[in-house]
Amino acid sequence: MLKRLLTVTILLAGTTLAAHADAVSDAMADVQKYAGQKTTWDGPTSGPAAAEGKNIVVLAADMKNGGVLGVTNGIQEAAFMIGWNVNVLDGAGSIQSRAAAFGQALALKPDGIIINGFDAVEQKAALDQAKAAGIPMVSWHASPVIGPDPENGIFANVSTDAMEVSAAAAKWAFADAGGKPGVVIFTDSTYAIAIAKADKIKETIEGLGGTVLEYVDTPIADTSTRMPTLTTALLQKYGASWTHALAINDIYFDFMGPSLAAAGIAGDGAPKAVAAGDGSESAYQRIRSSQYQAVTVAEPLNLQGWQLVDELNRAMNGAEWSGYTSPLHVVTKDNISFDGGDKNIFDPGNGYREQYGKIWGKK
C-alpha cells in the first residue's frame, strides 16, 4: 500500500513539473512571436493624396518622455514629405501645462491637431472646443481603444495593441523566472491606458501562477524624484523575492539604476526591469549594456508618427481611418541589433516611408 502511494505521489509530482515546464515554454514561445525582424509591410496601400500646404499642431504630453519624443520626430519627418508645417507645443509633463498648450493650439486655428501622449479625458473641455470648431484631430495613446473615438472628436487613436504589449512583457518575466516571478508593477493612474496596461500585466502574471508583490501607482512626471527612494524601499521590503520590475513605460527605469547599484546589485541582476512600452533610446542603451533593464516591448514610434500624419490626411479628405494597428517588438540583448536597434529605436525595415509616400502621391 505504501509503495503504491509513493508511486502515485511521484507520478503526480512529475505531472506537475511537466505542466509547469510547459507553461514556461509556452509563455516564451508566445513572446518569441514578437521578437523577430519586421520586413513585410502590413499597413495600408491606398488612401487619399496629400492635402497640400496644411498647418498642424502637435500637442506633446512631455518632450522629456522618450515615447512622446520618438512619435514627434516621426510626425516631423512625415510632415516634411507630405508638405505640411508643424508647430510642436510641449505640455511639459503637467495637466496645467497641457491645458495651456491646448489653449494656444486653438488660438492658432490650425488645419489639424495631433494629441501626443496624454489621456483625452484629461483635456475634455478643450477637445470639445476643437471638435466644435471642426478641427480634425488624431492621437497617440489618448485612449485604451485603437481607432476612432467620436465622443472626443478624435478621428483615430494610434497605438500598438496595449494588451498584447502588456501580456508579452508579463510572459517574458514569467518565463525568465522559471515560472516563479515575484513582480512589482509600476503605473500611473493619471492615464486610463496606463491602468489598463498595468491591470493586464497583473492579470497575466497571476493567471500563469506568478506572484505580484506590489502594484505601485506613481506619476510618470515625478519618476526622477520618486523612483530612487521608492526602489530602495521596495528592495528593503521584498529583498530577493523581488525578481522582476514591470512598468508601463521605460521612463520608470531611467532612475532606478543608482539605487540598485548602491544596494550592490549587478547590472544584469534581479530585479530585472521589463517595460511594457515604449522602446526609448535610454532603454535600448540599458539593454545593450546590461545595465538594469532586460527587456522593452517597443512600439515603432517613428512609424506611428507617419501613421498619425496619414490618418490626419484621411480626416482632412473625408476618408475613413486606415484600420491599421502597428506592430510591437520584444527587444532583448539577443535581437537588439536589427530593425533600428543600432540607432536605439524600433524602426521596422518594412518600407513604411515609401508606402506612405506612394499613398500621398509623393513617391
UniProtKB/TrEMBL annotation:
Start and end residues of each Periplasmic binding protein domain: 57-319
Keywords: Signal
Entry-linked Pfam families: Peripla_BP_4
Database matches in InterPro entries: Peripla_BP_I (IPR028082), SBP_2_dom (IPR025997)
Location relative to the cell: Cell envelope
Signal peptide feature range: 1-21
Assigned protein family: Belongs to the bacterial solute-binding protein 2 family.
Listed name of the protein: Substrate-binding domain-containing protein
